[in-house]
Each structure stands twice: as C-alpha cells, then as structure tokens.
C-alpha cells in the first residue's frame, strides 16, 4: 500500500521546496526597486539627464532579467538531463521491489543516490550512520542487503521518520535499516541512541536542513569523529553550500578528499587520514 500524507495541510507548492526561488525573487525585486528609485528621482527633479537614464535603466532591467531566466533555463535543462541519466543508471543497478519516492529539491537527487550506491558497493561498510532520512536511505538499504550491512538513519521530523520507516518495510529492507527519530536541540540532533553505535564505517551527512543556518551541519564531525572507524568514509551532500564546513572539518579532524562530484548540489567523499 502506498504511503500517503495525513492531511492536505502537508501539501506545499513546488516553489516553496526550491531554495533558489527565494534568492531569484529577491534579486528581481531589488532590480525593480532600483529602477523605481531612478524614476522617482526623474520626476522629483525633472532633469534632462534623468529622462535619459530612466528608459536606459528600464532597458537594462528587462535585458538582465531575460538573461537571468535564460541562464537558469539552460542550467536547469542540463541538470534535468543529468538527473534522468542518473535515474536510469540507478534503476539499472537496483532491483527495486516498489517504486522509489520522488527525488530532487529537498529530497536526494538521483545523482547523489548513485554516488551513495557506488561507495557502499566499493567499501561494503558494516555500519552506516545517515543524518537525514529519505530516498537515499532506501537506496543504501538495497546496497547493503546482499552482504548484511546495517544502516542507522536519524531524522528530526517524527512524521517523516515514520513515513520512511513504512517505505522501508514496503521495500522489505527493515532488517537492514533502522530509522531513528532524533529531534533537533539548538539546531542539532539529540544523538543519545547513537553513542552505542560504533565503529561507524560510513557516515552520510544529508541533514539537518541548513538553508537559514550557517554551518548547520558542522557539529556532525565534532559529535561523531571518535566513533568513526579507521579509514571511515564520509559522504557529504550540498557540498556547494557547505564548502566552508567541509574545509574546516578537513583541517580540524585530519580528513582527506577522496572524490569531488560537481553534480546538482555538489557531493564530496572524505576519508580519515592514515594514522
């Protein structure tokens, strides 16, 4: 039986899920406010130079707005192709027993799911800890199933944790994946249940959400570094946004970059240095 949301109140507009919408809208509003300011000065002082500048400014505003939308459409078309390519590869790799949940936006993108699958298949970690549950959890569950690895996925939203646990049961992956509800306290997970999980062979950092909180994911390493196994693998999503956080981890916790993926959100694979 498919998993459904509890009420229509949980449905949101697609635009609300895209973190770039707010940035784009604000830049356009700023440009129009600038033009309105120029027009106000023209009418206030009625100067000849103002009468020349105002239509030029309008032309500049229209041109830059058109170019911005053209640039965004070109990037989005490229990303669409890359994601369809990754999704095709994903379904060729995984013998899914149920349809996968929707991907992209706040959910993991197909390109990230392929990276997680490949890293698990290459290293075959026995214990995986994932911060932020979702479709990536299901993909990881399929990856560990053949050799019996265990995944502990932490989620701060109780309803979403329950939904994803139900999805895992539908995919017959409950023996390999445990979703744990861990509410946020001061912006970070309450990880009491995590203290006994070690050694962690792979850490997947895809939470908590950090759009409005600078370096929201920085606590992952200070909290978990002592539980990481020797040569543990760390996969970080949203690398383009969290670049400074990752660089700080590398310096403070003796990590090295294994792979950098310039995909939709950016993904980096790290490893504890030898010694």
What would you note in describing this structure?
The chain has 275 residues and is an alpha/beta fold. The protein has 2 domains: 76 residues; 174 residues, Rossmann fold, CATH 3.40.50.150. Helices cover 47% and strands 18% of the residues. It contains 8 helices and 9 strands. Strands 3-2-1-6-7-9-8 form a 7-stranded mixed beta sheet, with helices on both faces. A two-stranded antiparallel sheet has the order 4-5. A hairpin with a 5-residue loop joins strand 8 and strand 9. The longest helix has 46 residues. The N and C termini lie far apart (49 Å). The N terminus is likely disordered.
Just give the CATH class of the largest domain.
Answer: Alpha Beta
Oligomer: single chain
Strand order of the largest sheet: 3-2-1-6-7-9-8
Based on the coordinates given, report the CATH architecture of the largest domain. Answer: 3-Layer(aba) Sandwich
Average pLDDT works out at 82
Radius of gyration: 23 Å
Question: Helix count?
Answer: 8
Count of individual beta strands: 9
Helix content: 40-55%
| Helix and strand run | HHHHEHEHEEEEHEHEE
Concise account of the structure shown:
This protein has helices at residues 14-17, 19-45, 48-93, 110-123, 135-144, 158-170, 220-224, 243-253; strands at 127-131, 150-155, 177-181, 184-185, 188-189, 200-205, 228-237, 255-261, 267-272. The protein is an alpha/beta fold. The chain has two domains: 15-90; 99-272, Rossmann fold, CATH 3.40.50.
